């Protein structure tokens, strides 16, 4: 879900109107065009992803854990200044939206690659779509690295409130979005990414006092889109169960302070930077992927 989809609907019903967009990030990332930097630190951090079935590499002390959330803020990946600050609502979201970027399934699990991905997404959203900033609040790389997306997102999560993004048309006022790097229509989710996704959802459920069985949904539950891919979408029940088990098994002291329950029915109008339907521009020389049926 590199750009915001169109065809907003009420609740979990779908709008039958045709929608078209192209995801060019897959070709660009796959072609190695991301500005990943060349510092010695970045070179040292470069490493291939483990095989999807290899759980041994998950014993990494630097991976994301809800008990000590390691979210790389915007300054780490050298984010541009937004055109204007994100709107912050004094209440929690009621849904966690799972996306996939529909980009190439890179084997690069490095910090440099993750930072380059975040910069590219922000550049595309601001320069090609004309939005104020990156649309999503959080991004997880294939290597399991978790990054802040839209400005004010990290601070807002910690305060139990919502920095409004641009990631689900007509539903941005009550949702928080997680972009998961890769295309998961037919391919499996890497263990590192999956482990971080589970822990990020545990963290968000704690901060916002959400019930995973109700709160965790896919992008296609609100808009007419294939996102987050058939494979990842089919694993959402497993994600809800895993998050619920983590919450049930955690000590009370680690659950965080209770948050007010969110308003159940938000206003349906999009925010000013929500763009309507349209086709992403082609980048000559790189393949594109159609995210809609």
Provide structural commentary.
With 293 residues, the chain is an alpha/beta fold. The chain has a domain at 22-30 and 62-79 and 88-264: Lysozyme-like, CATH 3.40.80.10. Helices cover 27% and strands 10% of the residues. The protein contains 8 helices and 9 strands. It has helices at 25-30, 40-45, 111-128, 153-159, 191-208, 212-215, 230-234, 236-249, and strands spanning 22-23, 88-89, 95-100, 138-140, 146-148, 162-163, 175-180, 216-218, 289-290. A 5-stranded mixed β-sheet has the order 5-4-7-3-8, sandwiched between helices. α5 (191-208) crosses α8. The protein is globular, with a radius of gyration of 18 Å. 51% of the residues are buried.
């Amino acid at each position: 879900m590199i750009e915001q989809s169109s065809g907003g609907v009420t609740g979990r019903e779908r709008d039958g109107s045709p929608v078209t967009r192209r995801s060019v990030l897959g070709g660009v990332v796959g072609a190695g065009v991301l500005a990943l930097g060349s510092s010695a630190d970045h070179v040292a951090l470069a490493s291939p992803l483990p095989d999807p079935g290899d759980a041994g590499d998950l014993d990494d002390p630097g991976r994301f854990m809800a008990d000590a959330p390691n979210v790389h803020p915007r300054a780490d990946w050298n984010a541009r200044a937004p055109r204007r600050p994100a709107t912050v609502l004094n209440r929690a979201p009621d849904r966690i939206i799972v996306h996939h970027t529909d980009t190439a399934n890179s084997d690069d699990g490095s910090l440099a690659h993750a930072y380059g991905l975040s910069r590219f997404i922000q550049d595309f959203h601001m320069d090609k779509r004309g939005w104020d900033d990156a649309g999503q609040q959080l991004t997880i790389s294939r290597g399991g690295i978790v990054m802040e997306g839209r400005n004010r997102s990290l601070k807002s999560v910690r305060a139990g409130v919502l920095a409004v993004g641009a990631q689900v048309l007509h539903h941005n006022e009550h949702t928080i979005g997680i972009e998961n790097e890769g295309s998961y229509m037919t391919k499996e989710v890497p263990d590192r990414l999956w482990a971080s996704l589970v822990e990020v959802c545990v963290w968000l459920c704690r901060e916002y006092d959400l019930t995973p069985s109700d709160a965790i949904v896919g992008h296609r539950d609100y808009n007419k889109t294939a996102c987050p891919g058939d494979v990842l979408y089919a694993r959402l029940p497993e994600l809800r169960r895993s998050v619920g088990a983590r919450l049930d098994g955690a000590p009370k002291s680690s659950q965080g302070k209770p948050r007010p329950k969110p308003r159940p029915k938000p206003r349906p109008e999009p925010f000013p930077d929500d763009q309507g339907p349209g086709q992403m521009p082609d980048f000559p020389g790189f393949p594109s992927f159609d995210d809609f049926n």
